[in-house]
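Dear Dr. H.,

I hope your travels went smoothly. While you were away I took the liberty of generating a structure for the chain from your last submission, since the lab meeting agenda had it listed for discussion. I wanted you to have the full record in hand beforehand rather than looking at slides cold. The sequence, exactly as received, is reproduced here:
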Amino acid sequence: MSLWQKITQIAAHASALFGEGDEAILPGRRVNDAALAAALIALGAKTAKADGRVTADEIRAFREVFSMPPEAQNDVARLFNLFRQTTLGYESYARRIARKFRCCPCILEDILDGLVHIARADGIITDDEEVLLRRIADIFGFSEREYRRIRASRLGEDTDDPYLILGIDEDIRDEDLKRAYRRMATANHPDLMLAKGMPAAMQDLANKKMAMINLAYEQIRRQRGLC
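The corresponding predicted structure, in token form, is as follows:
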């Protein structure tokens, strides 16, 4: 199941619970998926535009993250080209997504992770892109530390803070450390990522992220004399 499929399925369920009724935009989509589709496309396009230009690499990264069904490609391209003209309004789209998935922070993390992937597709995250990503993270309800963890994991950055990579506090108990590591490792295992719909082209990045998680865990165990 792709990230797009997972998001729209949860959105449809949430709409059934909370009673939203948007008009359809994408062919073959449920009526109540339309506003969500527009918001996701807008955030992806405006993230690509944040540094002033939209490159072919960023467009390819968008397609990797939000792999849409074939019947929706033309409409997605039309909306992407419309939203890529300016970054204005990105906060309102981020708030719409945050409200939709307020009970599913894991989905919000997946989306933010995807936006970081789009921003760095051309080789660097500029200051303007960094400002936009940090603001979206704030709207999604992520702390500065959580944002740094998501960003570092996605970019495969080296860090001297293994606790940051595992998303835990330094005073965590030894017995809770292993459980925290297992949760992080399970959620980010490359095989699971592929099963969730991650494109094969991103497999190398997933492997690096998993290696960072394993290294961070071993560093903490050595520091605590648990090895």
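Two observations you may find useful: Residues 3-155 form a domain with the TerB-like fold (CATH 1.10.3680). The chain has twelve helices and no strands.

With kind regards,
E. W.
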